[in-house]
Write a structure and sequence with these properties.
With about 220 residues, this protein is mainly α. The chain contains 9 helices and 3 strands, in the order H-E-H-H-E-E-H-H-H-H-H-H. It is globular and about 55 Å long. It starts with a helix and ends in a 5-residue tail after the last helix.
Length: about 220
């Protein structure tokens, strides 16, 4: 009975965290916004305890900042933040892709192809209506990049990659809506990454992926 209660509470926390994470990613909760638990409860529903747990979880992901004196607030999103996140993403994802190419099997290759197919299709749809498909596009991009490193045999690297991608989502979403992402060019670039990956050309695949991620700094 107690185990079920704990499990239900954990589910509520994850759901709240998911909603807050999405609203931070799409700018509904803007950078540096103070996150007052009473106001959040009125907006989303849920207990004060659940929101504290959810905000603590998001703080561990780096998209919320916690202070004993000032409570919680949305993390900043400056150009310096983007540069730091992008450079780390380029290093971590390239490393993970290299290890995945070394260890990945045919099933992993199929998953990479499927994830890229979904993402490329959503890039085409999103290019026609960036507001309508932005969230689906973002999720498909996250899944594709996660799949690239999924066979690296390092849970810690996978966790770090996921955290960095989560931190990058606000910048990607803003760039998409502002029209500064060339979705056709991104699709072509990632297609080259996939081609090199399936050819098991780790050096080329990692270089292409790194360049693709660092392209965010020149938009």
């Amino acid at each position: 009975m107690f185990g079920r209660k704990t499990q239900d509470s954990d589910t509520v926390v994850r759901l709240i965290a998911s909603q807050l994470r999405r609203d931070i990613s799409v700018g509904v909760l803007a950078p540096d916004t103070k996150l007052k638990i009473d106001e959040l409860r009125q907006r989303y529903g849920g207990s004060a305890h659940s929101f504290r747990e959810a905000l603590t979880l998001l703080a561990s992901e780096g998209i919320v900042e916690a202070s004993a004196q000032r409570g919680f607030r949305v993390a900043s999103a400056t150009q310096s933040d983007l540069e730091d996140i992008s450079r780390l993403r380029a290093e971590i994802e390239s490393l993970g892709l290299g290890w995945s190419i070394k260890h990945g099997d045919l099933r992993w290759e199929g998953e990479v192809l499927a994830a890229f197919h979904t993402y490329s299709k959503l890039c085409m749809q999103t290019d026609a209506d960036r507001q309508a498909f932005a969230i689906e596009w973002d999720e498909a991009g996250r899944h594709f990049h996660t799949t690239l490193v999924a066979a690296c045999r390092s849970p810690r690297l996978i966790g770090f990659q996921d955290r960095l991608f989560t931190q990058s989502r606000r910048f990607r979403y803003a760039a998409l809506v502002e029209g500064s992402i060339d979705l056709a060019a991104e699709t072509r670039g990632l297609g080259e990454v996939v081609e090199a990956t399936l050819s098991r050309d780790a050096d080329r695949a990692c270089e292409l992926l790194s360049n693709q991620i660092l392209g965010a700094l020149t938009r």
